Amino acid sequence: MAEREPVRPATARPPQPHDSARLHVSGRARYCDDEPEPANLLHLAFGLGSAAHANIAAMDLAAVRTAPGVVAVFTAEDIPGANDVSPVAHDDLLLAEGAVTYVGQPLFIVAATSRNAARKAARLGRIDYEPLPAHLTIAQAQAAGSLLEPTQRMAQGDAAGALGAAPYRLSGSFAMGGQDHFYLEGQIAMARPGEDGQMHVLSSTQHPSEVQHLVAHMLGLPSADVTVEVRRMGGGFGGKETQAAFFAAAAALVASKTGRPAKFRCDRDDDMVMTGKRHDFEVSYEVGHDDAGRVLALRLLLSARCGATLDLSAGINDRAMFHADNCYFLRDVEILSERLRTNTVSNTAFRGFGGPQGMLAIERIMDHVALRLGLDPLDVRIANLYGPGRDVTPYGMTVADMIAGPLIARLRQDARYDARRAEVAAFNARNMVLKKGISLTPVKFGISFTTTHLNQAGALVHVYADGSIQLNHGGTEMGQGLYIKVAQVVADVFAVPVAAVRITATRTDKVPNTSATAASSGADLNAMAAHRAATMLRDRIAAFLARAYGCGEEDVRFAPEGVIVAETVLTFAQACRKAHLGRIGLSATGFYATPEIHYDRAAHKGQPFYYFAYGAAVSEVVIDTLTGEHKVLAVDILHDVGRSLNPAIDRGQIEGGFLQGQGWLTTEELVFDGEGHLLTHAPSTYKIPTASDRARHFEIALWDGDNVKPTINRSKAVGEPPLMLANSVFLALGQAVAATAPERREIPPLDAPATPEAILRAIAGHRAG
Amino acid sequence: MALRFHLDGEIVELAEVDPTATLLDHLRYRMGRTGTKEGCAEGDCGACTVLLGELNSSGDGIDWRAVNACILFLPMLHGKALLTVESLAGGGALNPLQACMAGNGSSQCGFCTPGFVMSLHGRAIGARGHELPVEDVIAGNLCRCTGYGPILAAAQETGRLQQDDAARVAALRGLAGDETLAGSSGARRWFVPKTAAALAGLLAEHPEARIVAGATDVGLWVTKGLREIDTLVFIGDIAELRTIEETPAGLTVGAGVRYADAHAAFARLHPDLGELTRRIGGLQVRNSGTVGGNIANGSPIGDGPPALIALGATLTVRGPSWRRTLPLEDYFLAYGKQDRLPDEFVESVHVPRPGADDIVHISKLSRRFDSDISAVCGAFRLTVREDVIVAACIAFGGMAATPRRARACEQALTGRAFVRETIAAAAAALRGEFAPLSDVRGIADYRLEAAANLLWRLFYKAQGGAVSVLEVEGVRG
Question: Fewer CB within 10 Å: C terminus or N terminus of chain B?
Answer without folding.
Answer: C
